[in-house]
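Entry type: protein chain
Record version: 2
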Amino acid sequence: MRKLNLLTLTLLLLITTPSIAQTYIIQAKPWDSKEWGYINLDGEYLIHPQFRKCYEFSESGYAPIYEKKKGYYFINIKGEKLPTEITNFKLKQMFGFGTQGFKEGMVPVLVKEKWGFLNKTGKLVIQPKYDKVSRFEEGYSIAKTGEQFFILDKIGNETLVQVPNIVDIRVFSEGMAPFKTKDGYYGFIGTDGTVKIEAQFLSVGYFNIGVAWAKTKYETIGYLDISGEWIMQPQFFTVNDFDPETKLAKIKQGDKWVYLTLNGDIIEFKESDVISEFYQGLAKGKKFNKFGFYNSNMEWVIEPRFDSVRNFKNGYAAVKQGDKWGIIDKKGNWIIEPTYAALKDVEKII
């Protein structure tokens, strides 16, 4: 009887416990306007166009806004300003990606030429005392003061990186962060700050599915596992990281782009004029001057019929038909008809 009651209680909890709500939001610019707003997947404005400089929402539910007189601040999906413990701060600029907002519930802020971190409640949880910081990835940030590097957790605990002659450390991926030494060589450290793969390469990529590319002193590139052993001997000259979903890497063979499998096989897709990296299982291709998407089997999933496209994110992609932008799903169905002057990626808020 007791077991039955426990089972009944468990089922009731499963039935009555609300599922985690998800909100999708997109930066949108209407016609005849220089200002951006934010819409949902129904094409309805959650925040009406009013910003000249605004950026993507993070999963934390906040987007950075910049106004000349007010500086940087954050808004939620109702357009309400996040109260922050400090004001008059600056945010990091990421080349090719714009202004950096929250990542993993943390955002780096520059105050009086020193970097610290705000959390999503607006509290300054890591004081601004660092010369340089990275965004948080996998729960850790890389910070630098003078010549010393530290690994930070989200409450500001520091792990000193005691590796001689380090000049740079990138973000973590699968528990490994590339580092660079004064003599120009790269290796990898772990989250404990110790060297996992010695600095011996001219350049390296990031670990995905346990594999990262590395360039030898002979200028050839191969792929390593997390122990530093070659799973694919150096033989290439231009490569990219492996995609976690399709397990394919875009590489250059001779004068053409192809895909590399983990087994070392080469896959070509001759039906597209451009070969792209995969995002969420699909890559953008081009044929007869129109764009579409193909899958890892090298099949057109969405036939080329658009004038421009963005990569898929959170199951959706912004595409341009004629001079107007809309949103499609992975089957190519219109979720938002092309009616906007410009659209960015579909962001998910949890």
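Comment: The chain has one helix and 35 strands.
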